[in-house]
Amino acid sequence: MKIGWVSAVPLLLVSSVASAQSVQVQVGVPPPPPPPPPPTVYVAPPPPAYGYYGPRRPMYERGDLDRPRLRLAFGATGGPFVGGNVGGAGGFWGQAGVQINRLIAVYYQTHAMLGVVGLRQSGALDVYNSFFGGIWNNEAMIDFTIHDVFQVGVGPSFDVYSVNSFNEGFPGADARIGVALGRIGPWRRTGFMLGVDIHPTFVTDNTFPTTSVITSVLVTIGGGWY
Predict the structure, then answer these.
(1) What is the mean pLDDT of the segment spanning 49-64?
(2) How far apart are CA 180 and CA 151, in angstroms?
(3) To 10 degrees, the CA torsion angle through 5, 8, 10, 12?
(4) What range defines the domain where residue 206 resides?
(5) How many other C-beta atoms lie within 10 A of the C-beta of residue 76?
(6) Which of 166, 150, 151 is nearest to 203 (CA)?
């Protein structure tokens, strides 16, 4: 019995060594690689709703003073006739047109007045050869507003004189300088306006008791949107 137990010991040792080698082989195997990442899905954006050339851009940004807008102004006017004539007139002044951009405007301007005009005789008005009645200047102006304050305008005019027994229209011209003081908003400018108009009227009727050119200096005061 003792001899059999001893002979079994080497077999157990061999078996243990074989098991240990087998375990070492199993431990030395590298781990499997990680699974690949899931595929990335790209979703194309929907096509623009404005056609082939992309979205339309507005011509003018919100609050842009360079966009066209309505120009209005009104107030009072008056002043003397100068040169070879004497007298004066006063009444209503107004403008209506388009402010094309921050600088340039085109508009109709009127001076609708009552007044008296005649030839200068020894430095005074000859009341026997003078006219009293309505004087209506109608001007087509182009105007430049500089630095939002200073205004310079010029244009032709058609002037109607309804005085005494005369009711006639004559060509004329107008040159205006002025200032506008007020608020500058996102859409338009508003404010108080003060100006001076130099206005010659070219008389084509020899029976008028005036010189061939009637020149008036008219002060305008009022307010408006420009």
Answers:
(1) 55
(2) 7
(3) -120
(4) 69-225
(5) 13
(6) 166
List the one residue out of 221, 170, 225 whose CA is nearest residue 200: 170
The pair of structure tokens assigned to 155 is: 């244009």
Report d(CA 85, CA 123) in Å as an integer: 9
In a domain, 58, yes or no: no
Specify the amino acid at residue 212.
S
Tell me what pLDDT residue 78 has: 98
In the numeric block, which tokens belong to residue 172? 């004329």
Give the pTM. 0.69
Residue 151 within a domain: yes
Percent of the chain with pLDDT over 70: 76
99 domain-assigned: yes
**pLDDT tens across 84-142, in order?**
888 999 999 999 999 999 999 999 999 999 999 888 776 555 555 678 899 999 999 99
Position 107 scores a pLDDT of: 98
Q: Which helix (H) or strand (E) covers residue 196, if one does?
A: strand 189-202
Q: Where are the beta strands (DSSP E) in 27-184?
A: 69-82, 85-99, 104-121, 124-146, 150-163, 166-184
**Count of the separate structural domains present in the chain:** 1
- Can you give the CATH number for the domain in which 199 is found? 2.40.160.20
The two tokens of residue 142 are 């182009």
Q: Does any domain span residue 137?
A: yes
Q: Is the pLDDT of residue 143 over 70?
A: yes
What token pair was written down for 183? 């608020």
